[in-house]
Amino acid sequence: MAGAKTTNGKSLSNGRSKSNLSNEVLTLVEAAAYLRIGEADVVRLAECDDLPGRQIGMEWRFLKSGLQDWLRAPKRKAGKTALLALAGAWKDDPDVSGIVRAAQAMRGRTFAETES
Asked: Of all helices (H) and strands (E), which one includes residue 46?
């Protein structure tokens, strides 16, 4: 990268210092301490894609900003509760008929529109 100074660890091309970046990327132990929950809970949440993180080899890494966003976001509904929340969500959407027709045509089926 032009203009990036990474060998001395003082600055990067985006203006952030290497030490600032190391504070943004957390290990499993640091993420658990930051969230004040057990490491096993952090791994469980990350493995089911509820908590944003990446496993690199045998180690986990978490962006502090990602954890903050996760904490701010409303809890996602799971399973049947999520499906029930979606029921009727497209009822008055004017584009649904066209989307269904296109999907049926791609599958080689005809679209039978019913009036209620």
From this structure: helix 39-47
Q: What pLDDT is attached to residue 4?
A: 47
Question: Comparing 3-12, 35-44, 81-90, 101-110, which segment has the lowest mean pLDDT?
Answer: 3-12
For residue 94, which phi and psi values (nearest 5 degrees)?
-70, -15
Is the model's pTM score more than 0.90?
Answer: no
Helices (H) and strands (E) in the chain, counts: 6, 3
**pLDDT at site 87:** 72
The secondary element (H helix, E strand) that includes residue 43 is helix 39-47
Q: How many CB atoms lie within 10 A of CB 43?
A: 17
d(CA 7, CA 104): 57
Query: Residue 55 to residues 58, 62, 75, 87, 101: CA-CA distances in angstroms?
Result: 7, 9, 23, 35, 41
DSSP one-letter code for 11: B
pLDDT, residue 62, reads 97
Give the chain's domains with CATH numbers.
Answer: 1-76 (1.10.10), 77-116 (no CATH)
